[in-house]
Amino acid sequence: MLSQKETSAQKTVVAVHTEGASYLKSSDRRGDAYAQEDESVKRPPMMKIKEEAATLLEMMGTIMEIMSTLKTEEAIEGVFDFANEKIMDATREVILYPGVHRRFLKMLLKKSKLAAAIRASQPNGTAKPYLEDVKVILKVTQALNGETKEKVLGLKKQVAYITSELDSEREGREAAVAVMRKMEGDIKEMEFALISQKDEKEDALKLVSKLKEKVENAVCVAENTKDKLRAANQEAEREGKALKAVIRQVSAELSCAKRERLAAATERDGWLQI
Fold this sequence. Notes:
274 residues; 89% helix; single chain; Myosin_tail
């Protein structure tokens, strides 16, 4: 059984067939109405009017065939915008009711875009039967006017060129995104390396500061020790000098006492001899 989207796409194709036939028939009626509005205006040749309508419809059939081969939303949007411009350019040269032609062709273009979008969402759905229906439209319109074959081929080439440009642009954009992501990764790595170096530098500065503080403390302790040693040496020198003075004094006193003892002994011996 067909899905809801496939049924909708097939209904769109049938509607395009019906509206295309009505469009060609109504071109004759518009030619008659144009002549009846003002008898002074020369009635355009009916074959010319029919050729214009057939040419426009053939152009739309070509665009619809191209639309049926697209598989991405970017390509569909690109062809849709390009076809809009082509419709505006083509209807400027139309003799009768260019606004009517323009509205009808834009309506067909919107339906074709909708069907293409449905097929893009379901690649294996309605692409094949829709393409066959579009080929039928092309055969009918090409039978009406064979002189537009070169224009159709040119239009196909232009659309194919635009499609390839869109694909190239998409590939370039994907490559640019990949390069940008790689650059972002490199930048993050560089930032991490800089942060790590900064942390290491700060740690080294802290260590140097601590070592400097320890050296300063050691120098201060050495200076204090040196001062204490100098004071101790000076005190020892003073005590040594005082001790030497005491020793000299004691020696002198001992010498004096010895002489006195010797003198007393001599005097005693003298008294004993008497």
